[in-house]
Amino acid sequence: MQKNSKSILVTGCAGFIGFHLTKRLLDEGFYVIGIDNMNDYYDTTLKYDRLKMVMNHPRFQFVKGSIENMELLENLFCWYDFDTVVNLAAQPGVRYSLENPHKYIQSNIVGFANILECCKKHKIPHLIYASSSSVYGNNKKIPFSVTDRVDNPISLYAATKKANELMAYTYSHLYHLPTTGLRFFTVYGPWGRPDMALFKFANAIVKQQPIEIYNYGNMKRDFTYIDDITESILRLINKEPSPESPYKIYNIGNNQPVQLNDFIQVLEKHLGKKAIKKLLPIQPGDVPETFADIDELVKDIDYKPQVSIEEGIEKFVEWFKDYYKISE
């Protein structure tokens, strides 16, 4: 493989998307400096096991710390000459934001402001950062387009992600810092987050425990497989940002919403077990449907997410059974 001399900073490198991106970048020949605070929002064993997969790679350097620590970030930006910064560090989760709002302000607002300041000061050629499909709130227009107004977030998590986009716009406008925001749509796959529906459902079905299905199963989600996410980010890293348009936002979704009940049916098939269903009303902060318009993404990077639910869930179940030593 041809060596790539580019250095990439990946924040949240032990997280679900951060780990997969780090691994892919290393496979592609990049140098990767990863930072993660290894917080206990979910089982840290999973985070450390992800890290083990890349820790000994000769082109990977890990830093344990938080993007809220400006002194640490300043040192990192002085030590390394980053070609691209990919900010995936954030406090995720819609429901958790109802219980712990300050965690979201610290990580998603203060931390992101630190990233922006460091990128500005050190003249980073490109900042790519995670936004979320949550910014669309109760958007009535389907599919969700990046040109839609997103002024009505219905969770604090969504509000912090919208704030990130506004902050990035300001830095692009004032300092000509090229920024690209990615509105991810329900990412799933091997090494996924235990607080996400697929992981929780699989765990409960295997243990023959009830699964909680909100909105009585009448939810639709634009489930997006992790490899489609990393391929899209890789192409954006390799694409020179336009000096005329330094601020960009993209949806990254599968462009094919799936009914939650159908999603569970595919999971049952691959696990070989039936779910015990507990039907519940919609939760505060949840939206009934997500559906990504990805025309802009396809036009700019010539790639359309393509992994089907059938294929994606099968790969997740293979990993899940292997990781947790689950026999038939």
Automatic annotation (TrEMBL):
Xref: SUPFAM superfamilies: NAD(P)-binding Rossmann-fold domains
Tell me the protein's name. Answer: NAD-dependent epimerase/dehydratase domain-containing protein
UniProt superkingdom: Bacteria
Question: What organism does the record attribute this protein to?
Answer: Bacillus smithii 7_3_47FAA
Q: Which residues cross the membrane?
A: none
Record-linked Pfam families: Epimerase
Q: Which UniProt keywords apply?
A: NAD
Known InterPro entries for this protein?
Answer: Epimerase_deHydtase (IPR001509), NAD(P)-bd_dom_sf (IPR036291)
List the CDD domains hit by this protein, alphabetically. Answer: UDP_GE_SDE_e
Q: Which residues form the NAD-dependent epimerase/dehydratase domain?
A: 8-253
